[in-house]
Write a structure and sequence with these properties.
By secondary structure, this protein is an all-beta fold. It has no helices and eleven strands. Strands 2, 4, 5, 6, 9, 10 and 11 form a seven-stranded mixed beta sheet that branches. It has a four-stranded antiparallel beta sheet with strand order 1-3-8-7, with no helix packed on it. The termini are far apart.
């Protein structure tokens, strides 16, 4: 199982960012993709998940209305898009899947929000 994420992003406040997570080594539609972030000096924060088989999503209440998860089964790639960015969104963003008792993580994508 391998999850490979897109590169670092720098955005101005108020902008949007879209991070990708390319999955390989397993059946993409068989397991949820979770998105988690870690701000500087803070713990992991769960943002929500998507079921790639049908695109059904569950968002953490904190992010509802500002985050969108999508999954492209043709390219086995999941995406997170976060809008109306603010400085507090500066963090490393991770995708994760849990398969047969084991967690698999992407390498992380640094998103920096700064003017």
């Amino acid at each position: 199982v391998q999850l490979v994420q897109s590169g670092a992003e720098l955005r101005n406040p108020g902008a949007s960012v879209k991070v990708s997570c390319k999955a390989s080594g397993y059946t993409f539609t068989s397991y949820y993709i979770d998105w988690v972030r870690q701000a500087p000096g803070q713990g992991l924060e769960w943002m929500g998940r998507i079921d790639p088989v049908d695109g059904h999503t569950k968002y953490a209440q904190k992010f509802q209305g500002r985050v969108t998860f999508t999954a492209d089964t043709s390219t086995t790639t999941a995406y997170v898009e976060l809008s109306s960015l603010r400085s507090e969104d500066t963090a490393v963003y991770y995708c994760n899947t849990y398969k047969l008792g084991k967690n698999y993580w992407g390498q992380g994508t640094q998103v920096t929000v700064s003017s």
